[in-house]
Amino acid sequence: MAQDMTNKTSKIALNILKNNVLCTHCLGRQLALIGSGTTNYERGSAVIISTIMNHLLEDEEKAIKSSKIFSKTKHSYAIETYKKLTGEELTPTEKCRLCEGIFDKIELIAKRALDAVSDIEFETFLFGSSFPPEWLVREEELWTEYGITTSESIKGHFNREVGKKFSEITGKEFDRKKPDVTLIVHIPDIRIERYVSSIFLKARYRKLVRNIPQTRWPCNECDGIGCEACNYTGKRYPTSVEEEISPLVVETFEGKDSKFHGAGREDVDALMLGSGRPFVIEIISPKKRHADLEELTRKINEKAKGKVEITRLEYTDKDLVRALKENASQAVKTYRAKIYCEKPIDKERLKILEKKFTDQQLIKQRTPNRVSHRRADLIRHKVVYSVKIDDILNQQEFVAIIECQGGLYVKELISGDEGRTKPSFSELLDNNCKCVELDVLDVKEKI
Q1: Selected catalytic residue, list 267, 417, 439, 442
Q2: Counting CB atoms within 10 angstroms of each CB, which of 200, 212, 288, 438 has the fewest?
């Protein structure tokens, strides 16, 4: 059976090489799906050596003929055997039809790739490649012409070979799923293009002052360009939670930029207290991948002192960003609201209000008027888990603690928003109510 397989692969190889020049790599690639546990170069080499050796046992003339044909691959065994049998020295110069000799440059390419990443930290890598379309067409034509169904593509073989050499030189590891850096080799000019994977850090922030948005807010008048209305800053607010945190993170990791991903967001005029709001910061194209996160936390909190502070700074990955967005509406959030009533407060109605919201009250909330210009006009169904009256400040003001589902517009829960939110505090108290101060006390979000 093994001899039959050897004879079959020998015939395939000799048939291809009669009218084509292939290197040993590309010859072996045509037989890639036959067997496992070896490289394509080793496959090609094995076919060449075993065929010539078998022919030497059978007939010297046959061996001369096969060694001459296999010399096209520039394999030393074929060239030396032909010289020994005939006394004639062959010096094949024609390039491989499929790869044009690119596999002879693997070490050179790996070294160029090393130059391309000399200024960055990384532990894992992935190679990709871009070949001229005509090269891929030539390969498909060969497969069709000779009925080859056992081949591996040139791109797959090239990416693996250059990756093996690169790992050998650098000691770094190949990672198909989450590489620190991806290197694309453009053939035939051997131009290296690199893509550095983002670093993701998770933490929680507390916002200790009002009138700071979560992220940079471009000026409404000039859309961030800079105008008289924004004093040419391009911003509606002087700073944001993001701007108090991100610059030091980008600087520490020597990144090009950053993105801020919050687990929801509080209103600009609300405080974020308690254990803070979960967020992920993405550092884009970082040159460094390791830092002292305790020291970075200290620097951020010192810079943003009195405005913003962060805790629990840790490394994470991109999957958490998706989870934050997908799970935002499932988070349980606790608010403290200072509420002004148009008429004097009826304490009995406050008791009715508390009772109404003791058993996961479903709220139907149409998109509020204040955000209708940037949100789809929908009716959302949210849950209020509890309402507790924390303090009655005077005849027209009281403080309530509200525990509710993420995504609920709390100010509209209080005011009713002209009937767009039902039930509401205004409706249940038979009093026009308005939230005059809002603090977020807790965000139960697992990150």
Answers
A1: 267
A2: 288
